[in-house]
What does this fold into?
Amino acid sequence: GVQVAGAAPFVGGGAAKSLNWMVVSWQPAAGLAIPEYSLQNRTVLAGLLGITAAAACLGWLHIIVVRPLREVAKQAEALADGDRRTVLYPRHHDEVGAISRSLELLRQQVLEQRKRDGAGATAPAAAVRAPAGRN
It folds into this structure.
């Protein structure tokens, strides 16, 4: 790597003073405490921490939000395609779980309606009809 050399006259006293010696020192440039390098290193560190935080947030978003929503969408599509046998268990206690519970209630209502329609074929039509004030 790059090294920096420095030289200074020997200013000590005694017998070596008359020799006019120079003190020479070599140091790697990477080890120098240059303010611009320190600022650059801090900026790089802040950028890496920001990227790490963003990646962690995106991972959390994918695990907590995207996966459950994809699962509920898959269940809703299966229900719309006619799959009435698969029970939809809510696995989350949030909005996604509320959607799963609502889809399960819809599935149960469809099954009950089919049972009533099947039983209504033998019963009189007036007994199967709901009261006029109810939706």
